[in-house]
């Protein structure tokens, strides 16, 4: 084997790797070079063996124990004098993933660090293979479709293809249960409205603000869940406690600002202090509740080994809607007698 391309000895077995693990997508048909090789040696060998490689974006530098010690891009290879050694120009700051890393995380690593391919290594640094750019694009496409489907309560094994190829019966079976959940949630919400109806008295104007209360809970909850789920995908070591503390601070500012705004508007419109107070307190409490649920549900699903994207679907919507209505009417029932 020429000096520029060291021969691989060990091969990685993927049969015991989870279905969505990075190792199932990697290829080892990439140029491997020695840190002691000259650029002339590498270029000469590359021209002879280019057809054997699946990806040529980067050259991976391995030491004698097959550990990844550096990376050289094809642009750098042809930009330096041919007598230079690989060790002199290689990039030593490496972005790598492990064999069991989720495919989606590898794709997000590629975007985050603007890389065309991500090398896969063992915990000791031994090189296993590479997930190339076309595979990363396919993963992003498939995962984006899957997240969109999960957010509506639909789960298919291969979302990129199954959503097109699935029969009408499969679609009904996948979608109907979650829609039934939404229907039951709507019925429960109707019972809540009826239960508290007597507390309104002559303040029927409160009913006009029901859509606003529900919308605020859904909007804030959706924002928080989306950001939290994406943050978990980008950083698998993301600490829940630190993230939650920051979100509590954000929630307090948002809730106070929006609560004061709706309180002032409703008072100017209705000239009733109690209406403004009820709406202000309700919006404040609803936003805090929505953000708490938006953090807790994905965290809970993740701890149970389930996809956190499920938490942003119909189930989360029903819980937010019912909770926001209950809080709204409870606050109204609590405050109205105080101003009678």
Question: Can you give keywords for this protein?
Answer:
2 domains, 5 strands, Tetracycline Repressor, domain 2, CBS-domain, mainly alpha, single chain, three-stranded mixed sheet, two-stranded antiparallel ribbon, 6% strand, 340 residues
Helix/strand order = EHEEHHHEEHHHHHHHH
CATH domain topology of the largest domain:
Tetracycline Repressor, domain 2
Shape: elongated
Beta-strand percent range: 5-15%
Taking the alpha carbons of the first and last residues, their distance comes to 92 Å
Query: How many strand elements?
Result: 5
The CATH H-level homologous superfamily of the largest domain: SLC41 divalent cation transporters, integral membrane domain
Share in helix: 55-70%
CATH level 1 class label of the largest domain: Mainly Alpha
Give me the number of helical elements.
12
């Amino acid at each position: 084997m020429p000096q520029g391309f060291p021969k691989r000895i060990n091969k990685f077995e993927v049969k015991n790797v989870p279905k969505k693990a990075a190792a199932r997508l990697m290829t080892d048909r990439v140029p491997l070079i020695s840190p002691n090789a000259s650029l002339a040696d590498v270029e000469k060998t590359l021209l002879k063996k280019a057809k054997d490689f699946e990806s040529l974006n980067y050259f991976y530098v391995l030491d004698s124990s097959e550990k990844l010690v550096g990376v050289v891009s094809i642009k750098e290879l042809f930009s330096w004098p041919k007598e230079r050694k690989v060790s002199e120009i290689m990039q030593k700051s490496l972005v790598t993933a492990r064999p069991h890393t989720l495919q989606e995380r590898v794709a997000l690593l590629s975007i985050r660090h603007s890389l065309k391919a991500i090398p896969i290594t063992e915990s000791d640094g031994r090189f296993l293979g590479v997930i190339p750019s076309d595979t990363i694009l396919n993963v992003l496409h498939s995962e984006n479709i899957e997240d969109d489907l999960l957010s509506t309560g639909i789960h298919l094994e291969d979302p990129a293809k199954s959503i097109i190829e699935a029969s009408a019966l499969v679609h009904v079976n996948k979608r109907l249960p979650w829609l039934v959940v939404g229907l039951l949630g709507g019925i429960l919400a109707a019972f809540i409205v009826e239960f508290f109806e007597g507390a309104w008295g002559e303040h029927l104007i409160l009913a006009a603000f029901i859509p606003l209360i529900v919308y605020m809970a859904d909007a804030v909850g959706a924002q928080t869940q989306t950001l939290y789920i994406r943050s978990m995908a980008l950083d698998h070591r993301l600490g829940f406690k630190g993230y939650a503390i920051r979100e509590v601070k954000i929630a307090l500012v948002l809730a106070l600002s929006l609560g004061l705004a709706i309180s002032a508007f409703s008072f100017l419109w209705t000239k009733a202090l109690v209406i403004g107070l009820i709406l202000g307190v309700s919006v404040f409490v609803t936003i805090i509740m929505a953000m708490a649920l938006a953090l807790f549900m994905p965290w809970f699903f993740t701890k149970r080994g389930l996809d956190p994207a499920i938490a942003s679907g119909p189930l989360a919507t029903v819980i937010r809607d019912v909770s926001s209505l209950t809080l709204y009417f409870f606050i109204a029932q609590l405050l109205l007698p105080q101003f009678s």
